[in-house]
Design a protein that fits this description.
The complex is a heterodimer of chains A (310) and B (209). By secondary structure, chain A is an alpha+beta fold. Chain B is built from seven helices and no strands. In chain B, helix 1 packs across helix 3. The relative contact order of chain B is 0.03.
């Protein structure tokens, strides 16, 4: 009897320890999300995908009630991306700007901006060890996926400011797939001067998107299986003008990641899998159809999704 | 006999070596000892050693000093070890000893577990620093060109055809990847439009990135 009581007490102690550790993890995570959306900063970061490295400069600031964010690719021929509150502008050199609505720039790590409650449904947050990174004291935070098939994240957070210093996307086999790494960071009390001009610049208004009716987009095909936590976005943007060869397509989301499934006429190629950082590109064809799955999922999940197209 | 005695006794008094048999005889015979004493005295007189540097009571004093010295008892290591072993063998029969041993084993296992985990984590950290595994990172870029373009055998033409097909597929994949990115970019706007006004049918100019 006494032994049972003792064991129960130990179990309670261990459990409460876990709960407290998880709470500390989410508190730290909230600090990160606050830092990237409220501070005035001028940051350079690299994205390492395999042996390919892309460098970006990321500026953010708040002027009165307006939030301004500017993402500039430094070594690729990409586009400048500017966000003013809920409008995102893709500034191209040879064409007019492409404008859309959204609360965050999709080219930045989504988990820095997505709703914490939604992320908590998909991940466990556990605070790890301290280490020194770029001369700063960095705290490790592990976001471990609750379900199989979803990648995990390891975040290193500046202990002083709460700003993320490094984000690794980790596969289920614990291999790093993609690394997001801050190389230079300057947090200032005032708005970075480069943003001042952009804050006042005249920019075109958002162009309403053409939505595709799900029924007409995919009248001939169905998706009979979804990875756990994912749902189909009922009305994705109309892609037929850009991709006339598409027979059908779906956009799936779990609130943090997005996966596209495309159906095309078969080219009779063998099944292939490619990887662009954490993004898997999986192609599978039979006699009639070729199904392509693109998104941050494991190859096994992509294969199951491709098999689910009827 | 006596002259023989005198010979070696005289030699002994001059610091010449003597045999062990002669030494035994000397130790047993008091007369011989007296004679050696006299020879030594004669020698000392002849060498003009007037007085001994030591006092006559020296041996007595030294004996008294030795008496006063405390006694030291040396113990060998082996004896100590044996004692410990004896103590352990006695303790092994006691019930408390088993409990303590079990506790020690449990603590040992826990220590190994803790340090084992730390050592397991370290190589993982090193892995993170090493170059990332390369599956096939770029869907489009870097497609190997045929080794020899001038070769016109059936095999190589077949290979070229296959490579052409692969190249075209990679192009299509890049287009699909762009389409995926485009979908993600406008997703929020699409969802908002859907939530706010139902279906928006305004034409959107074609844009690809």
């Amino acid at each position: 009897m006494r032994l049972t009581g003792f064991c129960g007490a130990i179990a309670l102690l261990v459990l409460s320890g876990f709960v407290r550790a998880e709470q500390a993890g989410w508190t730290l995570f909230e600090r990160v999300q606050y830092a990237v959306s409220h501070y005035n900063f001028d940051v350079s970061f690299v994205v390492i995908k395999g042996n390919q490295t892309d460098t970006y400069r990321w500026l953010h600031g708040q002027l009165q009630d307006t939030e301004i964010e500017h993402l500039v690719p430094l070594d690729t021929s990409g586009v400048d991306i500017l966000r003013r509150d809920n409008h995102i502008y893709y500034l191209l050199t040879d064409r007019p700007a492409f404008v859309t609505d959204g609360t965050s720039i999709k080219e930045l790590p989504a988990l820095l901006f997505e709703n914490k409650q939604r992320i908590a449904e998909l991940y466990d947050a556990v605070v790890g060890s301290n280490s020194t990174m770029s001369g700063r004291n960095a705290q490790l935070l592990r976001l471990t996926a609750l379900q199989a098939g979803r990648y995990s994240y390891w975040l290193w957070i500046d202990a002083e400011s709460g700003f993320p210093l490094r984000i690794d996307t980790i596969s289920e086999q614990q291999n790093p797939l993609e690394r997001w790494l801050v190389t230079h960071m300057q947090i200032t009390p005032e708005l970075p001067s480069n943003l001042q001009a952009l804050a006042e610049a005249e920019l075109p208004a958002a162009v309403p998107v053409t939505l595709s009716e799900q029924a007409s987009a995919n009248d001939a095909y169905q998706l009979s299986w979804l990875p756990s936590g994912y749902r189909v976005i009922p009305e994705p943007v109309d892609l037929r003008q850009q991709q006339p060869a598409l027979l059908g397509y779906w956009l799936l989301t779990d609130g943090l990641h997005q996966v596209s499934v495309f159906v095309q006429k078969s080219q009779s190629m063998p099944a292939q899998a490619y990887r662009d950082g954490a993004t898997t590109i999986y192609v599978q064809s039979n006699e009639q159809l070729e199904v392509t799955v693109i998104g941050p999922v494991s190859i096994e999940t992509a294969r199951q999704l491709a098999m689910a197209v009827r | 006999m006596s002259s023989e005695n005198q010979d070696w006794l005289s030699a002994a008094s001059d610091n010449q070596p003597i045999t062990s048999a002669q030494l035994d005889t000397l130790l047993q015979d008091a007369e011989l000892q007296g004679r050696l004493d006299r020879y030594q005295l004669i020698g000392a007189v002849l060498r003009r050693e007037k007085a001994s540097p030591l006092s006559g009571q020296f041996s007595g004093d030294f004996a008294a000093l030795l008496e006063q010295e405390p006694e030291y008892h040396l113990r060998t290591d082996r004896g100590l070890l044996q004692k410990v072993m004896q103590g352990v063998s006695q303790a092994a029969n006691g019930s408390w000893f088993k409990t303590v041993t079990q506790g020690t084993v449990a603590a040992g296992v826990a220590l190994i577990a803790v340090f084992g985990v730390q050592q397991f984590q370290q190589p993982l950290e090193q892995d993170m620093m090493s170059p990332l595994p390369v599956l096939q990172t770029r869907p489009v870029a870097g497609f190997a060109t045929p080794v020899s373009l001038s070769q016109t055998s059936v095999d190589s033409r077949f290979e070229q055809q296959q490579q052409q097909a692969m190249l075209e597929q990679q192009k299509r994949l890049q287009a699909l990847l762009n389409a995926h990115r485009q979908q993600v970019r406008v997703m929020e706007q699409a969802q908002q439009a859907e939530a706010n006004t139902g279906k928006t049918t305004t034409e959107q100019p074609e844009r690809g990135q």
